[in-house]
């Protein structure tokens, strides 16, 4: 139950991303700075935490051993995750992006065959090829149904091009985030804690964010003071607090695809938290009845996932990448 609770708290702090990114877009800020400033500002906060815990040297040693691996999966897990999400915020409200983002649950399950599972059984350690958890996938389609209901309402008011620009980047991000996270779990092999892993991936993704920032300087100019402050808030709430909570939750169920899917399913709560935040702080109109039904279906699917994850006997599993 602890991983589920941590996942829900992570969802609450992740919701700040969608609310503040939408606020930055409404005030004229560019998605380029919304994306790059978050990770740039995350570095000092994470450095303070990791140094205070006296864990910086083991992290740097691990990164030095496999620099290309860290650069690749950090770019995928952070760069190809957050840049598309910020780009989509220019075309859709935060709650709609948060709802569409829940497709990451299905994306994560489809990634199962890319990993091997080492399971501790009564007869010893057994290594098996990772599989797509069909039961979990069937429950995930309940969440997908909710997303479709929400998008149907938007389809009647938005152009096709706007819908595509608001949806396709989110789908790309939905595969990139769990893939990068799981691959880095395998690379770290329990040698690093969640704080170290988040800091390491942030440092390894900095080349991408710095290049994006340079592009932003030549295309949209420097960010405003308001956007800079909001980016700091996103860095602390979503970048540090939410990411560490979520990574810790996934570490607790590392390799158990059923429970990993349940932890990832808790992120559907972002929809409710984001909607509530936008109504309170941005004074947006409440979604239509059809969209509200869709939101309820999404959350219901998450609850079913949580129950399903505890219906089976616990097994100790460790995921190993090909």
Automatic annotation (TrEMBL):
InterPro entries: EmrE. Keywords: Membrane, Transmembrane, Transmembrane helix. It comes from Peribacillus loiseleuriae. The keyword Repeat does not apply. The keyword Transcription regulation does not apply. It comes from the Bacteria. The chain crosses the membrane at residues 31-50, 70-90, 96-116, 136-152, 158-177, 198-218, 230-250, 271-304. It holds the Pfam family EmrE. This is Membrane protein.
């Amino acid at each position: 139950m602890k991983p589920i609770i941590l996942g829900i708290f992570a969802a609450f702090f992740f919701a700040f991303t969608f609310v503040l990114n939408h606020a930055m877009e409404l005030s004229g800020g560019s998605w380029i700075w919304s994306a790059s400033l978050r990770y740039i500002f995350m570095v000092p906060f994470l450095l303070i935490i990791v140094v205070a815990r006296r864990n910086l040297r083991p992290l740097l040693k691990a990164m030095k051993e496999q620099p290309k691996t860290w650069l690749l999966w950090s770019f995928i897990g952070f760069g190809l995750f957050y840049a598309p999400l910020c780009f989509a915020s220019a075309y859709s409200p935060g709650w709609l992006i948060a709802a569409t983002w829940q497709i990451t649950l299905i994306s994560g399950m489809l990634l199962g065959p890319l990993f091997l599972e080492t399971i501790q059984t009564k007869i010893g350690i057994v290594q098996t090829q990772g599989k797509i958890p069909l039961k979990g996938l069937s429950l995930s389609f309940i969440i997908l149904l909710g997303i479709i209901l929400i998008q149907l309402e938007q389809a009647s008011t938005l152009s096709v091009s706007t819908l595509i620009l608001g949806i396709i980047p989110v789908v790309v991000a939905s595969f990139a985030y769990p893939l990068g996270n799981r691959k880095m779990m395998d690379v770290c092999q329990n040698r690093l804690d969640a704080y170290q892993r988040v800091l390491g991936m942030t440092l390894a993704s900095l080349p991408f964010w710095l290049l994006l920032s340079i592009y932003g300087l030549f295309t949209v100019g420097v960010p405003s003071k308001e956007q800079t402050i909001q980016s700091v808030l996103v860095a602390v709430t979503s970048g540090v607090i939410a990411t560490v909570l979520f990574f810790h939750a996934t570490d607790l169920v590392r390799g158990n695809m059923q429970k990993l899917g349940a932890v990832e399913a808790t992120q559907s709560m972002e929809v409710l938290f984001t909607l509530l935040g936008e109504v309170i702080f941005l004074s947006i109109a409440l979604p239509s009845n059809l969209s509200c039904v869709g939101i309820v279906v999404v959350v219901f699917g998450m609850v079913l996932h949580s129950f399903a994850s505890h219906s089976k006997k616990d097994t100790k599993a460790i995921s190993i990448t090909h």
